[in-house]
Amino acid sequence: MSTAHATGVLHETSAAATEDQALVRVHDLHFARGRKKIFQGLTFDVPRGRITTIIGPSGTGKTTLLKMIGGQLRPTQGSIAFDGQDVASLSRKSLYALRKRMGMLFQSGALLTDLSVFDNVAFPLREHTDLPDSLVSHLVLMRLHAVGLRGARDLYPAELSGGMARRAALARALVFDPMMIMYDEPFTGQDPISMGVLLELIHTVNHALGLTSLMVSHDLTEALSISDHVVIISEGVVVEAGSPEQLRASQSEWTQQFLNGSPDGPVPFQLAAPDYATELLGTGADAPTASGSDR
Amino acid sequence: MIDRVARFGRFWLDALERFGRAQLFLARTLGGLPSLVPRFGLLVRQLHATGVMTLSIILVSGLFVGMVLALQGYNLLQGFGAEAALGQAVALTLVRELGPVVTGLLFAGRAGSAMTAEIGLMKATEQLSGLEMMAVDPFKRVYAPRLFAGFLALPMLAAMFSAVGVLGGYLVGVEVLGVDAGAYWSNMQSSVAFVEDVCQGLVKALVFGLVVSWIAIFEGADCIPTSEGVSAATTRTVVYSSLSVLGLDFVLTAIMF
Asked: What pLDDT is recorded for position A288?
């Protein structure tokens, strides 16, 4: 397994991905929940000013990784550096200062349900600044206009569709002019129009505002269409990393299974289980009993 | 046998570990109280949610409890020819015991469960994580206002419960059963001491307010972020709060009276 991973990793050659241009550097990351090992030596960079997508099987820890970059979880070993600062070693005050430089778009939007769309977007400004109301109003309306929701300013989150909620959350994530935005499954459950709107927004926002974007997504076709850099992770390590073109040309079985959506391959269709024939024929120690004791 | 002993030990270790976490949680929440000064509006909003929204059930319950006390007390006192002491009996029972205790139980069922469900759903819908990622401390923005609001609201509610209960006792004792109105009020006035009875009853209510709010907020923040997890946390809030109110009532009564 580890050999397959090691040989599959591509080393990106473009200058943009060199170490000094990486905004986030994940090095030898280890993390476990109870006895389950989530990461076992994860190492990759997020190039500055580009859109990076992390893909991998469900349950492989992609959302956990975003939370670790945001400092909500701490690694058991290894390091995560954001703009040169080791996230795990920061004090709470420094961590909160760091988080003002990063935005996160949660899968559910995570809008505060007791506030209107306008107040949700204004929330970070009101919490962290003493700007006059008129200036807050202008900033909020500019962000809402950018995501096409200026007309929804007085609606509450419960009155928004899933796509509108994510656009409002994107406006909120942008209101503090962050260096990087992390997107957790931004396209899940979206109709084609909403998905197209979100794709366009992520792409436009990243390039127009000179941001760095880090996205976790299962929607490969859409995600790869706007990504500059892709990292495939599985079983706690990086399987392969590179540009979408490099991955499409890859000979790695892992990469091809992900990109083609093959049901069987290095990620097996069948979970590890006792021998099928032995179980069906009822012989051997693992055979089911009449009382159903294996349930 | 060994397995049972191990499970028993594990259960208590887990319970102790959780109690320790709850205390650390309380300490961090109390540390967030100074941040309420610039966020006074949050406290007012929580006082409305926990206090004003619980007022109707408190007033109705207080009225009926006072009426029942008068009915039972009259039957008992009449046997000794002491029905004139009905006002004293109703007031002392309400101010010392039933006011804080029943208000604490009702508060746990109405406001405590609502606090747990709200915070649990905020956790399940990633709102708490969202606040963290916006560099906003949930201990200051979410937990501290609720804890302080519960601490302030419960004594006020208990005072209103007792006041309405005294009026309920008057309605049944004086208007229905014929106890002399002057005796009802004057006996009450002469036997109920402000510091020993009223203030110590309010001290009980303050303690109950703190404990019930602490349990409610901690259970919400500590719940498993699923519908089953929020449901179980809400149930735990009502059970633990009710038992805590009754247990602490005994301890405080033994200390103060």
From this structure: 52
ipTM: 0.79
> Which one has a higher pLDDT value, B206 or A219?
B206
CB contact under 8 A, B134 and A106: no
CB pairs under 8 A between A and B: 50
Alpha-carbon distance A179 to nearest alpha carbon in chain B (angstroms)? 13
User: How high is the pLDDT of residue A292?
Assistant: 43
Positions in chain A short of pLDDT 70: 1-20, 283-295
What integer pLDDT is reported at residue B140 of this predicted model?
Answer: 94
Measure the CA–CA gap between A271 and A284, rounded to whole angstroms: 20
- Torsion angle, alpha carbons of A109, A113, A119, A123, to 10: -70
Alpha helices, DSSP H, located in chain A: 2-8, 62-69, 92-99, 117-128, 133-146, 162-174, 192-208, 220-226, 244-248, 253-260, 276-281
Smallest CA–CA distance from B123 into chain A, residue:
A110
Cα angle value A73/A75/A81 (rounded, 5°) = 90
Q: Which of A68, A92, A98, A108 to mutate to test the interface with B (most CBs of B within 10 A)?
A: A108
Query: Cα(A20)–Cα(B193) distance, rounded to whole angstroms?
Result: 76
- pLDDT for A284 equals 53
> Which of B126, B132, B141 shows the shortest C-beta gap to A108?
B126
Percent of chain B with pLDDT over 90: 93
From A178's Cα to the closest Cα of chain B, the distance in A is 10
